[in-house]
Amino acid sequence: MIKSFPVLFRAGTHGTWLAWFVNQHPEFPKSELEINPSTQLDYATLGGKTDWYVFDHSFFKFNNLNRLHTPKLAFKVMPHHEAEPPRTPFQRIIDESNAVGIIVPTIKEHNHKIAKERFDIVRPNQKGQEYFLHSYPDGYKWKTDLPVLLCDPLDLMQGVQEEYDKLLEFIDSEPLSDWKGICATTIGTFYNIS
């Protein structure tokens, strides 16, 4: 049976990127990252392969439609990424997906400035808003007994080994041989930076 890791997040915390990055590891489905065709500004996984539209399909059907027959999976909940009740069936998501842990992208204080700058680039109509800086558990309406990993994608993108080690332990995976290069390449593509 698949072991899943829902990646639950607020816009601006790089949750799509983090789910994609986790899925590059051994035993996870590989997917491609692209510039979101609808916004031309933020990330999207090619074809939405790891995006579970919880109101359209059961987890079983989502998994079969996308041929995600791997031992492990990190996925994004659609259409509401933070999976907050009552508008999203949080407990159904956990139960159907056989979740073994939840990953919550969390921007640490030392990364707030860069997160705000990137958020303003990707969401110009919400410029100046900082609601995405609220972390779990304070900023979320769901509660769980499952292990929860608070992971800062910006630390990963900057090559912070301690953050990567924490992620590897949580997902119980071997490291990618060029994880820092993968992070640098994807972030450079989306923000035209090195």
Overall description:
It is a single chain. The chain has a single domain, classed as Rossmann fold (3-Layer(aba) Sandwich), CATH 3.40.50. It has a 3-stranded parallel β-sheet with strand order 1-5-4, covered by helices on one side. Strands 2-3 form a two-stranded antiparallel sheet. A two-stranded parallel ribbon has the order 6-7. The radius of gyration is 16 Å and the shape is globular. Strand 6, helix 4 (112-122) and strand 7 (148-151) form a beta-alpha-beta unit. The protein is an alpha/beta fold and 194 residues long. The protein is 32% helix and 15% strand.
| Largest sheet composition | 3 strands, parallel
The amount of helix comes to 25-40%
Number of helices: 7
Shape: globular
Q: Structural class given helices, strands, pairing?
A: alpha/beta
What would you say about this model in short?
With 194 residues, the protein is α/β, with parallel strands linked by helices. Helices cover 32% and strands 15% of the residues.
Q: Which helices and strands appear, and what pairs or packs with what?
A:
Blueprint: E1 3-7, H1 15-22, E2 33-35, E3 43-45, E4 51-53, H2 59-65, E5 72-78, H3 90-96, E6 102-105, H4 112-122, E7 148-151, H5 153-157, H6 161-171, H7 179-191
